[in-house]
Amino acid sequence: MKEINDKAREMMKGYCRVCKVCDGRACAGEVPGMGGLGTASSFKSNVEALEGIRVNMRLLHDATEPDTSTSLLGYDMSMPVMAAPIGGISFNMGGAITEDAYTDAIVGGCKAAGVVGCVGDGVPPYIHEAGYASIKKNDGLGIPFIKPWEGAELDEKLELARAAGCTTFGMDVDAAGLITLRKMGRPVSPKAPAELAKIIEKVHSWGARFVLKGIMTPDEAALAVEVGADAIVVSNHGGRVLDHTPGTAEVLQEVSEAVKGQLVVFVDGGIRTGVDVLKMLALGADAVMVGRPVSVAAVGGLQEGVEKYMETLRGQLVGAMVLTGCKDIASVDINVLF
Ligand SMILES: Cc1cc2nc3c(=O)[nH]c(=O)nc-3n(C[C@H](O)[C@H](O)[C@H](O)COP(=O)(O)O)c2cc1C
User: Fold this and answer.
1) Per the domain annotation, does 330 fall within a domain?
2) Which H, E and C letters describe the chain, residue by residue?
3) 180 Cβ closer than 6 Å to some ligand 1 atom
């Protein structure tokens, strides 16, 4: 990973410093870029909230070879981790590799590691085109996240993603706050429940599933259940859309309790190590998404970089599960936390 990170630091010069800990400090305000919006308080809160949580060490047990596998939304995965959707290599990461090479690395690397890669959306169109092409190449194993566009663009992209063989579709509703899209004059907006219900009904009529990304409160999680979503992602978009939100680890427990058993709960934001994954599972997530560090691995090492990153994270998760006495993912609960 050191080699991959060193290479990425060179290739992402001026866009990402590939810091020892990716915590939003050095890149505050760099949107476009890899940073958080404004003071980057939301990005920093994600990392700080996780840092503030402690785990109970337990060794008097027989969980010596924990099983990290899980099944979610019809995907059998080697661990409850996905690569978060991230788009815009040229204006966010410096463009040292193409968007196609990037999404191939993410989707292919995740598939090889037994997890699922997500792809993003935006302007220009090569962002979603690259993502859908990579998903198609990988037999539909990837989740496209489409922005909450106004007008026909949303339907058009759903159809394009469907043609690529996707079985799960996502929408990052929180992208309604994205400064990059506003600058490009492309309208995105919050989505009223009635409109969302219609979109989800359409996706369900294809026998597919729908994920709503950008949920930060229990009331909106309950609304996600009402409109028929199959999953939510507790997320503040890595702190890129609104300054001064809480960290996702601060809101996760309350949000997941509000919808327990009714839909799948993902979370992202500031997850950097296997212990962080364990903490999020203990707070009620079914799985997590990792953003920036996977991007860095993809730029620095392409598919191999992503595979290596996932392998490293799984090794750390196994270690954390042994030291906290968790024999499998289902047995991770709040008692893991101090
Ligand atoms: C450069 C960049 C581009 C992103 N593009 C998208 C996108 O196209 N769609 C989306 O749903 N989220 C996007 N995100 C948000 C990520 O999916 C994710 O929520 C966030 O990065 C998680 O936080 P982390 O990077 O601290 O792990 C983007 C984030 C970054 C840093």
Assistant:
1) no
2) CHHHHHHHHHHCCCCCCCCCCCCCCCCCCCCCCCCCCCCCHHHHHHHHHHHCCCECCCCCCCCCCCECCEEECCEEECCCEEECCCCCHHHHHCCCCCHHHHHHHHHHHHHHCCCEEEECCCCCCHHHHHHHHHHHHCCCCCEEEECCECCCHHHHHHHHHHHCCCCEEEEEHHHHHCHHHHHCCCCECCCCHHHHHHHHHHHHHCCCEEEEEEECCHHHHHHHHHCCCCEEEECCHHHCCCCCCCCHHHHHHHHHHHHCCCCEEEEECCCCCHHHHHHHHHCCCCEEEECHHHHHHHHHHHHHHHHHHHHHHHHHHHHHHHHHCCCEHHHCCHHHEC
3) no
Q: Ligand 1 pocket: which of 240, 241, 277, 295 to mutate (most atoms <8 Å of CB)?
A: 240
61 C-alpha vs ligand 1 centroid, how far in Å?
A: 38
Whether residue 338 is contained in a domain is answered as: no
Is the residue at 249 inside a domain? yes
Say yes or no: CB of residue 176 within 6 Å of ligand 1.
Answer: no
Domain holding 256, by residue range, is 2-17+38-55+86-325
The CATH number of residue 210's host domain is: 3.20.20.70
Give domain status of residue 146, yes or no.
yes
pLDDT in tens, 160-193: 999 999 999 999 999 987 877 877 778 898 999 9
pLDDT in tens, 17-29: 999 999 999 999 9
Q: Could you give the number of structural domains in the chain?
A: 1
Tens of pLDDT, residues 275-299? 999 999 999 999 999 999 999 999 9
